[in-house]
Amino acid sequence: MTVLDGKNTAAQIRAELKARTDAFRKKNGFAVGLAVVLVGNDPASQVYVRNKIKGCEEAGIRSFANYLPETASQKEVESLVRELAENPAIHGILVQLPLPKGLDAEAILAKIPAEKDVDGFCAQNIGALALGERATVACTPLGVMELLRRYGISVAGKRAVVVGRSNIVGKPMAMLLLNADATVTVCHSRTSNLKEECLRADILIAAVGRANLITADMVKEGAVVVDVGMNRVDGKLCGDVDYASVSQKASFLTPVPGGVGPMTIAMLLRNVCDAAERATEKKQ
Ligand code: NDP
Predict the structure, then answer these.
(1) Could you tell me the pLDDT band of residue 282, with boundaries at 50, 70 and 90?
(2) If you take atom 32 of ligand 1, which residue's CA is the nearest one?
């Protein structure tokens, strides 16, 4: 079994991006810029934002951190996002989710123009992905595809099963696999025969949020297994896949932590670079 090492792969990607951002700065006289908006004091969100800002530094991206208090109003958050949308030094805007209760996340995200939507969450980007057109794609599924690509795992013609159908992971994951010519099945909480569906997978992606949901008896011998899940059990981070047993059957497997998580941040940084290059190309 080969471990799909997201940590090292992401470090390699950040180094590659550094060369791109250096060239960008030389050519344009200013840096690639990402604005991060964090509202409130959610401890997990604070960690995610810190990691994203650290990733920016390593990749040569200028970060603009915007912290608003838990008590910020809808109007305040929306007007901040509008301001960032108009700032030409900012090429990508990330609003850290979840937002505090009482705020309408959808209305806030809708204020991010598609060309600065580096999370790939807006309808225009999701629509373009569904049509197989150039799109900014959600970072987590994009990270999964990049990890597979860098380990030389081909997708075309394979039977892929995605467990989870959220708008930010499962659905875009299924669309990317389909666009890459896999035969795709999407499972969810109402799937009646999850084990049988999973057993058919050459490539199995778990994106559920249930610790150890995927056990060895659900995995075909030699399958590629990617664990997107992030769960806390007794204070310890673990995925959706029972690593110890599944590693006896899988040919490739991602660890948690150190698998999809670092790849997600690396793809965010890549999406920001792409957005910056597109924005300056447009102006020339
Ligand atoms: P959501 O809660 O939005 O979606 C979970 C999906 O799993 C839903 O489609 C749900 O089905 C399905 N589901 C729930 N229970 C079962 C079950 N028993 N059997 C089959 N399917 C089930 O979660 P997200 O997509 O946002 O995230 C999924 C996991 O990935 C989480 O652990 C999250 O923390 C992690 N994550 C990790 C990231 C990373 O960078 N590594 C980034 C983003 C998320 P239904 O639609 O029917 O409710």
Answers:
(1) confident
(2) 209
Taking each helix axis from N to C terminus, what angle separates 260-283 and 139-150, rounded to the nearest 10 degrees? 100
Strand order of the sheet with strand 62-68?
62-68, 33-39, 92-95
**Which atom, in ligand 1's list, is nearest to the CA of 188?**
21
Residue 52 annotated in active site: yes
Using the predicted structure, report yes or no on whether residue 249 has a pLDDT greater than 90: yes
Ligand 1 pocket, CB under 6 A: 140, 163-166, 168-170, 187-191, 194, 207-210, 213, 228-231, 260-261, 264
From 5, 117, 119, 242, active-site residue: 119
Domain 139-261 classified CATH 3.90.190.20?
Answer: no
Give the mean pLDDT of the chain. Answer: 97
Which protein residue has the closest C-alpha to ligand 1 atom 1?
Answer: 166
Question: Is residue 66 classed as helix, strand or coil in its secondary structure?
Answer: strand
* CA 105 / ligand 1 centre spacing (Å): 19
Confidence of residue 256 (pLDDT cuts 50, 70, 90): very high
The pLDDT value recorded for residue 71 is 97
Domain 29-113: which CATH number of 2.60.40.10, 3.40.50.10860, 3.40.50.620, 3.40.190.10? 3.40.50.10860
First to last CA, the chain: 49
Mean pLDDT of the 142-168 span: 98
Q: What average pLDDT does range 53-80 have in this prediction?
A: 98
Q: CATH 3.40.50.10860: which residues of the chain? A: 29-113
The residues of the chain that CATH labels 3.40.50.720 are 139-261
Tell me, in angstroms, the distance from the centre of ligand 1 to residue 243's CA: 18
